[in-house]
Amino acid sequence: MTSAGIANKVAIVAMGCTQFGELWTSSTEDMLISAVGEALSSADVPLADIDAFWLGTLGSGQSGLTLSRALGIDYKPVTRVENYCATGSEAFRNACYAVASGAYDRVMAVGVEKLKDSGFSGLLRADPPGDGTAPEQSVTAPAAFSLLDPAYCAKYGVDPAEMRDAMTHVAWKNHRNGARNPKAQFRSEVAKEKIAAAPTVAGRLGVFDCSGVSDGAACAIIVRAEDAYTYTDRPIFVQALALAAGPGRGAVDPAYDFTTFPEVVRSAADAYHQAGITDPSTQISFAEVHDCFTPTELVLMEDLGFSERGQAWKESLAGDFDADGRLPVNIDGGLKSFGHPVGASGLRMLYEAWLQLRGDAGERQLADPHTVLTHNLGGRPGACVSFVSVVGTDRTR
Amino acid sequence: MTNAILGYATYVPGWRVDPRGRGNADRIVASYDEDAVTMAVAAAGAVLDRSESMASRVRELAFVTSSPPYLDKTNATTVHAALGLDRVAAAYDTIGTGRSTVAGIRRALSGGETLITAADVRTGRPGSADERSGSDAAAAVLIGDPRGSSPAIAEVLAYASVTEEFLDRWRPATAPYGQTWEERFGFERYAPLIREAVATALDDAGVTEADHVVLTCPNTAVTKRAATLVKGTTSTQGSPIGFAGAADPLLGLAAILDTAAPDETIVLISAVDGADAIVLRTTDALVEGRQAAPIASTVGAGRTVSYPTYLSWRGLLDVEPPRRPEPDVPAASPSSRAAGWKFGLNGSRCTACGFTHLPPMRVCRSCGAVDDMTVVPLAGSHGRIATYTVDRLAYSPSPPVVDVVVDFAGGGRTTFEVADAREDLLAVGVEVDLVFRCLFTAGGVRNYFWKARQRVDITIEDKS
Q1: For residues A239 and A273, is the Cβ–Cβ distance under 8 A?
Q2: Range B402-408, long-range pairs (CB < 8 A, 24+ positions)
Q3: Looking at residue B1, what is its pLDDT?
Q4: Pairwise CA distance, residues A152 & A313, whole Å
Q5: CA dihedral sign, ordered A65, A71, A73, A78
Q6: Distance from CA of A124 to the nearest CA of B (A)
Q7: Optimal mutation site among A117, A120, A121, A139, interface B, most CBs of chain B within 10 A
Q8: CA-based nearest residue in chain A for residue B360
Q9: CA A68, A69, A70: angle at the middle one, nearest 5?
Q10: DSSP string of A43-100, one letter each residue
Q11: Partner A, chain B 321-380, Cβ-Cβ below 8 Å
């Protein structure tokens, strides 16, 4: 199940991203204006020149009006997109297809989420009326993802203390990276002792094993690849876009063992096929992945093909995915440092690809990155949607 | 009378509280997710478990309680659905305590097969005698025409009732706990009524003196002096666990049936606003027909819940909840469409490939076959923990929530909350049973569904 893809047909020519955090003084509208404004001025394109818009938000507004009213868009097509925590990526994916189809010259993908107005901890769900039996309604996200930890230990014979160290390393690494990112919600390093000793939220997941809850927005302007250089001398090209929505089989199938996301494996295979990637761990310069919880990142390293099965915990501990490792992961700080404003996260990952590939990442700039993978996951082990993109500087790749 | 007792079972919840902090937690209390409906399901389900053909024979379900979760809506229909009874089996509520239970027995003696399940959550005012000496529990009996596969375990020889109006104990419909007049006043009124009812019933039965006497009454002055009022040649007993409202007469009867020999006579006396006496004679079939776990074995086994936590379970102490939204109201139409799953715990199995779906699905997850499923009832089934977690963020009336992914012996997997969770005994592979509980209440709607309960060797729980 791979798609032909649209490799090298479209390019990102501008991006914008707000500060992420508890933005008590900013509304959804404020964040949209801020992110979109940054992108428009970066490309020196007026809003009126954007032909169509895709807005990703889980719950900060409904319909395209959320964007058109905020920005004063005059009678343009604006589509609101929702696909769980992959919502921002999904807005981007659909916007790219619209340009690739030839329907539009210039489109914008915007993602936004205002989580901190609810007054609650964690993410809220807006479920349709139901019979009150769905486990997703009572089992919180940290509880659902905490199942990965004991399952992984059992399958690969990992000592729980060593697994704890590996999870701690993920949190330590991502906070360390985030400390070097002025737009992150949390911008300080956290000592490993503090991470390991934090109060538990669910299973063995402590506070530092969970991504934060924040507000934020990010956006991208997408044009045909051949037009890209008229907007910027450093565009980035979309080489692969893949999405897999699972049948929810793991949740009901005793054969599923909670050590992998089949949806990620499938979407990664599709993306690698589209981009012509045969050895992801050497061909990808760095990856932005969905580190919603620390064991998620460990499992993703294996599902994305960066580590062999059962090796990610060890390689993560050895520093393979650190900023100076063989394949930096979440160099911008990830969900751990940015929090997870659902609709914005996928575009925030692409924003880091944008900065790094253009050499604009400041003190966390990596040496000569050329190909970046972003990965976004929505749902939970057993039933999820997974998005993988590959973007790069080289259109001929 | 041809109808007889065909089966019985009791349900004693697993929690004990020590309201006075004197080091003896012996007050039997239901968990926060239990109520009269869920306990009635547990007791009645245990009766039906004795014989596979039993459920299909039930013509009427009588649910008796003085603590109904709902008024206006019939509670017995929930019990009916959880037991998977046939839709032509009637289900009726009978609201009241012990006297209503006796009414159910009397009615059943002349009708079709009737399953009477009586349950009560008896909440006492903090500091009261009811709080110390009452009990939350359930008991059920099946009454009907004896047949080869379900013979009489006890025959009813006679019964008598005397009624009198006096104020011994009362509880306004909306009050969480009741009040009593001076106990000695009640004793003076009850004593002659009890003597009269017993004398009449024994006379009708042609029995001079019964082997066993069980006297249940909410007035402790009466139960303390039971032996001075009426005596059995072998035993004279009160409630086995402390007055349990509607369940008390059946609990008293069950305690005797647990140990009585065949061909012995029993007088069951319920003194509640009058007195009822029922004379029974046990049969040879009793030995085979006793409930699986005698009540005495369950009374002594339980885990202590702290007094403040218990008070919060009963809504008498308002504690800080997790910073999470309250859950959505279970909606009427989805709950109705999913009734087989939500109340009956029925999954579906693909006829083409055998894959089991929990909840039932129309399209097979494994082979894609459409609408080619058979119903798989799982309520009496058991499974093993595939993986587990303790959720400290989730909303719950009593955090934390413990969740388990359960794989069933005959195929199928789903996620459940754990009832009466033992965090210290969570492990992959641990066996779990399925129990009917109330997940939460939202908008006044009780969200009934099934939970997993760890199978724990009862000896581990014995109080030291």
Answers
A1: no
A2: B402/B426, B403/A135, B403/A138, B403/A139, B403/A143, B404/B432, B404/B452, B405/A147, B405/A258, B406/B432, B406/B452, B407/A254, B407/B383, B408/B356, B408/B358, B408/B378, B408/B381, B408/B382, B408/B383
A3: 55
A4: 9
A5: negative
A6: 8
A7: A139
A8: A252
A9: 95
A10: HT--GGG--EEEEE-SSS--STHHHHHHHT--S--EEEE-BTBTHHHHHHHHHHHHHH
A11: 322-325, 327-331, 333-335, 337-338, 341-342, 355-359, 361, 365-366
d(CA A178, CA A184): 6
The pLDDT tens digits of the residues spanning B369-427 come to 999 999 999 988 899 999 999 999 888 888 899 999 999 988 999 999 999 999 999 99
- Quote the pLDDT of residue A396: 66
Q: What whole-number distance in Å separates Cα of residue A283 and Cα of residue A326?
A: 11
Kindly list the strands in the beta sheet with B15-17, ordered across the sheet, starting from the edge strand earlier in the chain.
B27-29, B15-17, B303-304
User: What does R_g of chain A's alpha carbons equal in angstroms?
Assistant: 19
How high is the ipTM of this complex? Answer: 0.92
Digit-coded pLDDT (tens) for A175-185: 999 999 999 99
pTM of the complete model: 0.94
- Average pLDDT over chain B, rounded to an integer: 94
The amino acid at B422? R
Is the Cβ pair B330, A132 closer than 8 Å? Answer: yes
* A200: contact with B, CB 8 A cutoff: yes
Residue owning tokens 């060797």: B457
The mean of the pLDDT values for chain A is 96
* Closest in B393, B407, B417 to A121, CB measured: B393
Computed from CA positions of residues A115, A118, A120, A126, in that sequence, does the dihedral angle turn out positive or negative?
Answer: negative
Location of structure tokens 């579906």: B348
In whole angstroms, how far apart are CA A290 and each of A340, A342, A376, B35?
9, 11, 5, 42
Taking CB atoms and an 8 Å limit, are A132 and B449 in contact across chains? yes
Provide the token pair at B46: 């245990």
Longest Cα–Cα distance of chain A, Å, equals 59
Omega of the bond prior to B400 within 30 degrees of 0, cis? yes
Contacts of B172 (CB under 8 A, 6+ apart): none
Rounded CA gap, A289 and A375, in Å?
5
Q: CA-CA distance, B270 to A291, in Å (whole number)? A: 64
Query: What's the rounded Cα separation, in Å, for the pair A61 and A349?
Result: 22
Q: How confident is the model at residue A1 (pLDDT cuts 50, 70, 90)?
A: low
